[in-house]
Backbone:
């Protein structure tokens, strides 16, 4: 258990429905990331927050996806009008500062167990 | 639980053997590399990291080697145990951006007792 929790662990929904996932990071971490992972692939970055500010979004994050971190603690990821192609594991990670690599600060990321979404 | 290892390269070893898992990374400007272990139904778990100014780093039973010339990373696991069975991913952090990880293709490690 890394200290990052996600809810629900599994979600089955019908195409066209909206779904919302929650991530609770490690309490002292100010950075929070969302990734998507399909079977047989590595996780793919979706979006990233520092405190409550959403600082980066991947091209994978279509207009149907929205993420929030209103108080800089927990985060939610909502998918509207779900499609079968949205079926995947949605992973959340949080990080704290661990040092630098070159000129770049490094933040070690701790992953939650993920939410498995199945769109039928 | 579900499998994260479908259609992945697989390395099968006997308990006690040493394992070597390889990874080719894409961005020659990446500053930082990490190996993650992912067991079925769980999120990735940090194993070991290495910065681009190093070519080798050792942890407990694990060693990471970095060859920047050919953009190659390897993970060596000594005295492999059944509990090491999992999918292993390398990940890099590009020199630009906000420390977001780019994961490589995974390798499934199967350890037989």
Residues:
């Amino acid at each position: 258990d890394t200290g990052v929790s996600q809810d629900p662990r599994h979600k089955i929904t019908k195409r066209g429905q909206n779904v919302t996932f929650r991530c609770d990071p490690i309490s002292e971490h100010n950075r929070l990331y969302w990734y998507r992972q399909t079977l047989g692939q590595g996780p793919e970055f979706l979006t990233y927050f520092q405190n409550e500010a959403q600082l980066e979004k991947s091209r994978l994050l279509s207009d149907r996806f929205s993420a929030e971190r209103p108080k800089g603690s927990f985060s939610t990821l909502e998918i509207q009008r779900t499609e079968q192609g949205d079926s995947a594991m949605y992973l959340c990670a949080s990080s704290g500062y661990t040092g630098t690599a070159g000129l770049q600060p490094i933040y070690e990321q701790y992953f939650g167990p993920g939410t498995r979404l199945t769109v039928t | 639980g579900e499998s994260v290892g479908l259609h992945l390269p697989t390395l099968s070893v006997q308990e006690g053997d040493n394992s070597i898992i390889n990874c080719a990374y894409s961005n020659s400007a990446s500053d930082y590399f990490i190996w993650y272990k992912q067991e079925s139904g769980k999120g990735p778990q940090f194993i070991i990291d290495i910065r681009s100014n190093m070519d080798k780093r050792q942890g407990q039973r694990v060693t990471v080697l970095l060859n920047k010339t050919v953009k190659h990373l390897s993970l060596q696991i000594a005295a492999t145990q059944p509990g090491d069975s999992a999918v292993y991913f390398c990940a890099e952090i590009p020199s630009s951006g906000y420390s977001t990880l780019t994961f490589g293709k995974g390798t499934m490690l199967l350890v037989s007792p």
Summary: Residues 30 and 94 of chain B are 4 Å apart (CA to CA). The first strand of chain B starts at residue 10 and ends at 14.
